[in-house]
Design brief:
270 residues, mainly alpha, 13 helices, 73% helix
Length: 270
């Protein structure tokens, strides 16, 4: 049993102190067996899960979900920091000091004499400072720096973002859109051939060009897809509710009636 009086924080600094102290107690000898058993690797899954749950709150524009899930993200981040500190890898201060130094250094357009009038200028200035830090700025080294742990969609986005900095970029939005249609035609050709490997290869090229299109439009493809997933799920839930109210079975034999309900759901959104 640990004697501990939970304190309500009066400001951000004391809130972070309270959280870190509480996590340290939970991981102490007399704390929670589960918390003590966690490692930096075992905590990663929770961190990723909580991040996606926060994204769900953002997509739903639900502030209560956002507040709860960002708190859960902090729990996992602080737990990882405490794990490293307990192992004498580095301290919280080490990690935060390094972060602050990096933020200061890469914001030369704010704290130095580099001008940046737009958000795009600021990104360019950040990337220029980032490149100065690297010993090897070759294309090979930059591409190898893309994390292999990223999900494929996000990895594609990062790869193409880096390629664009080396001039591998379409000249116009129309060029990208034309490329999307070109790749779709090649999928059709692969389908006509009936070669599964060729179909997968060409379909992969479609995804690549769609990711390129999203990057060109300054839209995160993973967020756009998650938003579409949320919209699709929401529409079918409404359709299910309408079908139940009107006594329409949700099956293949009633597709025409379900199609009418689907259009009714879409009209209700506008």
């Amino acid at each position: 049993m640990i004697e501990y009086q939970l304190r309500k924080a009066e400001n951000s600094s004391s809130a972070f102190d309270n959280l870190y102290e509480l996590i340290a107690l939970l991981r102490s000898e007399n704390g929670c067996p589960y918390d003590r058993a966690q490692t930096e690797k075992s905590t990663l899954g929770n961190l990723i899960d909580e991040s996606y749950e926060y994204l769900e709150g953002v997509n739903k524009d639900d502030k209560s979900i956002c507040m709860e899930e960002i708190g859960d993200i902090l729990l996992n981040v602080f737990s990882i920091l405490q794990i490293h500190e307990a192992k004498h890898d580095f301290t919280v201060a080490d990690a935060v000091n390094q972060l602050c130094e990096k933020l200061y250094r890469r914001h030369a357009h704010v704290f130095g004499n580099v001008g940046a009038l737009t958000a795009s200028d600021a990104v360019d200035a950040w990337n220029n400072e980032k490149e100065k830090e690297r010993k090897d700025n070759s294309l090979k080294a930059v591409l190898e720096h893309v994390s292999s742990a990223l999900p494929p969609l996000e990895k594609s986005y990062e790869i193409q973002k880096k390629l664009s900095r080396y001039g591998f970029e379409w000249e116009s939005l129309d060029d990208v859109i034309d490329k999307v249609y070109e790749e779709l035609d090649e999928v059709k050709e692969a389908i006509n051939e009936g070669n599964k490997d060729h179909i997968e290869d060409e379909l992969g090229d479609v995804f690549l060009t769609l990711v390129n299109l999203s990057r060109y439009l300054d839209v995160r493809p993973d967020q756009a897809l998650e938003r579409a997933n949320y919209k699709l799920t929401g529409r079918f839930i409404k359709l299910s509710e309408l079908a139940s109210q009107k006594g329409v079975p949700v099956d293949k034999e009633h597709l025409s009636q379900l199609d009418e309900l689907w259009n009714e759901v879409k009209r209700s959104e506008t």
